[in-house]
Automatic annotation (TrEMBL):
Residues 42-195 form the NB-ARC domain. This is Os11g0266500 protein. One of its GO terms (molecular function) is ADP binding. It comes from Oryza sativa subsp. japonica (Rice). Residues 403-740 form the Disease resistance R13L4/SHOC-2-like LRR domain.
């Protein structure tokens, strides 16, 4: 499920959004209405959404995107900014459209050419969010060919002239978003403060109406004020104090000053530690996706987190993160089971304010493409984001700045700054600075205050003296090409997180690193038996990734010792509080986990298990894991006994299953198991979907993802009746169907429940191999792949670039029987 969030409503279910359905349907009508029956109906159409900041333009565009993207061959959603990095935006577009990593070596023109070439025969849907100038639009527009395939573009902007330019000065394709009316404003306000549905208490109704009037129907202002009032409980005097502190600007017209007053009120209400953490967010670029785990460890490294008895620093930092979410100061991205959140974004209005505040007190200096007037004599934290920053400017900026505490680079600069001058750094994040090579980082061994170090992909070797960095807490070299860590690394007595990629040889004496909490990952074939033994000494380890994908035959006489040590070390870690294990091992070595978990070993905190290799049955000991909430399994075979075991895990909230060989009879998930499951993934790839859901099954399931072969499922079971209509709590569905030749009519009604679920989002992707489809009608030469998307009512098929009209005619007959309601 694609999630792109800048307002909290974006990650909510459609039933939780307020005032969105009418505007959403109106935009969809503008996009799909085709009054002209001639050639012009096939032309590219651009619909612009215009309105002031904080009105919910991104939310609206994202809801439209989710609703209709299944009708298009290609789609992408990107955000601009006031001074956009056009190369980065074009790379993001190409990456989303191609579905792979960003091509780092192309210039703007080459990226435009690549996009045009790929899109020339595709029907595409593109969202360009937050455009500030016609010049930026003209550049990005040049990447989209008008190929007469009814492609669509949605833009959002605050500026009417820009909106008109995007929509070719056709006023009918410009949608002006309006503030929420009083009824919707009140509904949003109440949902955020009183989520139980009890409504505003009688003694607060008058003051709440007065507060809403001052918010002027601006969703972002309502959310921030609601986040502030949620901590005031129901004390009327405090609500009145908030009301009296808000100016009336927003109620009269949507001025920036009115919004700033509301935001400042919420900012001053934050506890001191939270103010510091909130201001730190000004170090990130506009529209940046800020990953929660990385942010939390940076807060810890900065020393922002106060000590709380009985809690680790990262746990306290996590509570700060969720407090800012609850106060609507930052916007959640990727809400997972149990309310876990992957990351956040900062709304650009909020970012502008905290950058201003940070600059005033010299807390963070961020240099982006807008430039900078002058830098203070002493910079505490420096964020380099300007892709156009010349070497001379950079060297001038960082000269005589030996006292900088944090340096983060967010762009691939032509030349790296001279790092020898940075002696006082606590945080050095160069993970996106791909111009760096080994000789650039030799000086890090003299950064004795360093607590957080993240290095880019071209680094192949760490200096031996890295072990002298006695304060280092986080070392992230996951992107690097490093093959061996130097032995002195074990002297890092305060290191809590060590993230390396697969295949790295670690020092044998790793047991000396007693502060380690996260270790990702250990590749057994690259390391010694001694290392496996030493892992058991890491008494504070919470998260561990182990890869033993190669066979152990090459280990000869050490094989038995290897087995014993791995089981022994994992057992010891379990006793000491291991919480999460991701493990892969060769087929036939199930004894590793059987010996660990089947021995009755006490695992009081263990809650997450991910087994990468395929199993022949669900281990029976899995029900003994009394705190297990997250489980990922890959199965060769699955039967009723396996389902009985899974149903017996009453604590489970997330379940991911990959299945290869289906049973002869469908397996039923009934009402007696998995009662608290929030999220279920079942991936069968080119095999059948063997599960069906009985009435009353999994009442708390909110998200469902399925992937299966259509032909195989039909052959085995005869239909696609999975009982989805019985999942009463379902909010999000994603279905990926591998649909190969067989000539079977399949539409959304087969997958969708018999009764309508109006607030369930469903994304269905059907994948055909055109060669096989053509062969089924006696045509051997067609080799192109065909993608078919569907929504609830319609299925759209696009067959392109076929020189032989007979191929086209027969494929249309194959894919569109008369009984089908598909549109060609």
């Amino acid at each position: 499920l694609l999630v792109d969030s800048r307002l909290p409503a974006l990650y909510s279910g459609l039933d939780e959004l307020v005032g969105i359905k009418g505007p959403r349907d109106c935009i969809i009508k503008l996009l799909t209405y085709e009054a002209d029956s001639g050639p012009s109906r096939q032309q590219l159409k651009v619909v612009s959404i215009v309105g002031c900041g904080g009105l919910g333009k991104t939310t609206l565009a994202n809801q439209v995107y989710k609703e209709i993207n299944g009708q298009f061959d290609c789609k992408a959603f990107v955000s601009m900014s006031q001074k956009p990095d056009m190369r980065k935006i074009l790379m993001d577009l190409l990456s989303q459209i191609l579905g792979n990593g960003s091509p780092m070596c192309f210039d703007e023109q080459r990226l435009i050419d690549k996009l045009r070439e790929f899109l020339k025969d595709k029907r595409y849907l593109i969202v360009i969010d937050d455009i500030w100038s016609t010049s930026a639009w003209e550049i990005v527009k040049s990447a989209f060919p008008d190929n007469n395939l009814r492609s669509r573009i949605i833009t959002t902007t605050r500026i009417m002239d820009v909106a008109k330019s995007c929509s070719a000065n056709l006023q009918e394709y410009v949608y002006t978003i309006k503030p929420l009316n009083h009824q919707d404003s009140s509904k949003l306000f109440v949902k955020k403060i009183f989520p139980s549905g009890c409504g505003v208490p009688q003694h607060l109704k008058e003051v709440s109406n007065a507060i809403l009037k001052k918010c002027g129907g601006l969703p972002l202002a309502i959310l921030i004020i609601a986040g502030l009032l949620a901590s005031k409980y129901d004390r009327k005097d405090e609500w009145e104090a908030v009301h009296n502190s808000i100016g009336s600007e927003l109620g009269k017209n949507h001025t920036l000053e009115g919004f700033r007053r509301i935001l400042m009120l919420s900012f001053y209400d934050l506890p001191h530690d939270l103010k510091t953490c909130f201001l730190y967010l000004s170090i990130f670029p506009e529209d940046d996706l800020i990953v929660r785990k990385q942010l939390v460890w940076k807060w810890v490294a900065e020393g922002f987190i106060r000590k709380v008895r009985g809690k680790r620093p990262d746990q306290v930092a996590e509570s700060y993160f969720y407090d800012l979410i609850n106060r609507n100061m930052i916007q959640a991205v990727g809400v997972q089971y149990k309310g876990n959140i992957y990351g956040c974004r900062v709304h650009d209005l909020v970012l502008d304010l905290i950058r201003s505040l940070s600059a005033q007190i010299n807390f963070v200096i961020a240099i982006d493409d807008k430039g900078y007037e002058s830098s203070p004599r002493k910079i505490r934290r420096l964020s380099l984001q300007a892709s156009n920053l010349e070497d001379q400017e950079m060297q001038k900026l960082v000269s005589n700045q030996s006292h900088i505490r944090s340096l983060i680079m967010f762009r691939a600069f032509k030349k790296a700054p001279d790092l020898f001058k940075f002696h006082a750094l606590r945080i050095l994040d160069l993970s996106e600075c791909n111009c760096l090579e080994d000789h650039h980082i030799t000086c890090i061994v003299n950064m004795f205050q360093l607590r957080y170090l993240s290095l880019p992909c071209r680094i192949t070797e760490l200096p031996e003296q890295t072990g002298n960095l006695q304060h280092l807490e986080v070392l992230n070299i996951r992107r690097c090409m490093i093959k061996t860590l130097p032995e002195p690394i074990v002297k890092l007595g305060k290191l809590m997180c060590l993230h390396v990629k697969s295949g790295v040889k670690l020092p044998d004496e790793i047991g000396r690193m007693q502060a380690l909490q996260e270790l990702e990952s250990i590749s057994i074939p690259c390391n010694s038996v001694r290392l496996i033994e030493e892992i058991g000494r890491l008494t504070r380890l919470r998260r561990l990734t182990v890869e033993t994908t190669s066979t152990t035959e090459k280990m000869g006489d050490q094989e038995v010792r290897f087995r014993e040590m791995l089981v022994s070390s994992l057992t010891e870690l379990g006793r000491n509080g291991l919480e999460s294990l991701c493990i892969s091992y060769p087929h036939g070595q199930n004894f590793i986990l059987d010996s660990l978990f089947g021995s009755g070993c006490s695992l009081p905190k263990f809650h997450e298990l991910d087994i990468k290799n395929y199993l022949c049955w669900v281990p029976r000991w899995i029900t003994m894991l009394s705190s297990l909430v997250h489980l990922c399994l890959s199965m060769y075979d699955i039967d009723e006994e396996d389902m009985r075991v899974l149903n017996g895990i009453s604590t489970l909230l997330f379940l991911h299953l990959e299945l290869r060989n289906p049973p002869e009879e469908r397996l039923v998930i009934g009402c007696d198991g998995l009662r608290h499951l929030n999220e279920l993934h079942v991936f069968c790839q080119h095999s059948t979907m063997p599960l069906t859901f009985a009435p009353g099954a999994m009442p708390e399931l909110h998200r469902l993802r399925l992937e299966f072969g259509a032909r195989e499922t039909l052959r085995m079971y005869g239909d696609f009746d999975f009982g989805i209509e019985h999942l009463s709590g379902l909010r999000d569905i994603r279905v990926d169907i591998n649909y190969y030749s067989g000539g079977t009519d399949m539409d959304a009604s087969i997958i969708h429940p018999n009764r309508p679920l109006h607030d369930v989002r469903m994304h269905v992707t059907m994948m055909f191999t055109l060669k096989e489809a053509a062969q089924s009608v006696g045509l051997q030469s067609a080799t192109k792949e065909l993608n078919l998307g569907t929504d609830f009512q319609r299925t759209f098929v696009q067959i392109e670039d076929l020189d032989n009209p007979e191929v086209l005619r027969k494929l249309q007959q194959l894919l569109s029987p008369e009984s089908s309601t598909r549109n060609q």
